[in-house]
Amino acid sequence: MTTGPFFPRKRSGSGGQPRRLMLPIAPRANTRIRFAVVTDPTMSAITPDEALALVDRIIREGGNFEGVDIAGPGEPLATPHATFDCLSRLHRFYPALDLGLVTNGLGGARLLADLKESGLGRITLCVNAVTTVTAEKIYAWIRPGTRTVPLARAAVILLNEQAAMATVCGRIGLDFSIAVTVYPGFNDAEVEEIALKMAALGAKSMTLCPHRPMPGDMECLAKPDRDLLDRVARRAARHLPVIESGSGPAPAGSSCLGGGPMPEVSLPKPGPGRPNVAVISASGMAIDQHLGQAGRLLIYGPRKDGLVCLLETRPAPAPGGGSERWQVMARIVSDCFALLTAAAGETPRAVLGSHGVKVLLADGDIEGTVDALYGGGRKKPGSHARKGPERGKNG
């Protein structure tokens, strides 16, 4: 971390790092940055139950952190029920715990009063633009509701809702800061304007995050250099205290959290007798369906030559029957080490988990997610398979 006249506030915690625990309970994205990795299954969402158990365990083990932020891997306000559930339970069991939310603000203004009532104490608003021209250059798509709308219209909605959320924060007395990711050549010239506008709306500080290219990014955009970051920070600091952040995983649609590191969430791995992955999908291309609505299961796994691909489809058990339905499903996917779905209730997750099938909540394309679960889908040394999974004969 760089400190000095441009970054007057240091982060607390050892080594200057923040001591805020990030809880990745949001499985669904409502924006996608044009330069970001399409999907990152290493940041699988956890349930509110798992989040509460994690906080409880860390506290019992003597973990030292100043507060908790709900953030990522998708957008917490895209699945507000889970966010409200997690906040209210944390507040009930740990009333002294400082609770925060990292969000892009879509749909947030109308929820803020209830979020505050549920225990929310602070907001980190991820703002990457204040003009629609810049927003359209940065975002690949924006989904204000259940459907993606034309980008030009959606960009207007996003910026208006971010301003509305900032305004409501001031009205109800909820502290908010902003987090800005610097995309060289796209929004670096606009960061000062972001700081000026958000300071006028009551922001307390700005966390400045450099874009971090990752393997698999859709477009090659370099990380901003030190000189560029210094110039951007110097200008923004005329209006807001600026903190630079170079660490922390990203929620979908943003490469900056504005908070501390998320806890490590271990991913399942293939093992003897469980080489495959089950996927719940309506389209056959994306992980886009609730487990309870599943009519079929797509089974991915390694072929005889080691290449990961779609092996077959299997019928899902008919709806109804309570927990027995999930017992049946566990038998259907008994050769799978994981099941990918957009959403799932606590009962099926518990039943499948007790049978050795880890249910992962994800939002993105199937093949990229499955590929990453297998470490890139690579065969043993000496093979000539391509990197990603591909369709099998049944696909």
Describe this structure in words.
It is a single chain. With 395 residues, the chain is α/β, with parallel strands linked by helices. It folds into 2 domains: 14-244, Alpha-Beta Barrel (TIM Barrel); 276-391, 2-Layer Sandwich (Nucleotidyltransferase, domain 5), CATH 3.30.420. The protein is 28% helix and 18% strand. It contains 10 helices and 15 strands. The strands form 3 sheets. The protein has a 7-stranded parallel sheet, with helices on one face. Helix 6 (191-200) links the parallel strand 7 (175-182) and strand 8. Helix 6 packs parallel to helix 7. It is globular. It starts with 19 loop residues before the first strand and ends with a strand. Mean pLDDT is 82; it is low at 1-18, 247-262 and 377-395.
Please describe the topology of this protein.
Layout: E1 20-23, E2 31-33, H1 48-60, E3 67-70, H2 80-93, E4 98-103, H3 112-117, E5 122-126, H4 132-138, E6 139-142, H5 151-172, E7 175-182, H6 191-200, E8 206-210, H7 226-236, E9 242-244, E10 276-279, E11 296-302, E12 308-315, H8 323-332, E13 336-341, H9 346-354, E14 358-361, H10 366-373, E15 390-391
Parallel strand pairs: 1-3, 3-4, 4-5, 5-7, 7-8, 8-9, 10-13, 12-15, 13-14
Antiparallel strand pairs: 2-6, 10-11, 11-12
Which ranges are low-confidence, i.e. pLDDT below 50, for 5 or more consecutive residues? 1-18, 247-262, 377-395
Beta content comes to: 15-25%
List SSEs in N-to-C order.
EEHEHEHEHEHEHEHEEEEHEHEHE
Tally of extended strands?
15
- Specify the CATH homologous superfamily of the largest domain: Aldolase class I
Structural class: alpha/beta
Q: What coarse outline follows from CA principal-axis ratios?
A: globular
- Structural Rg: 21 Å
Average pLDDT metric: 82
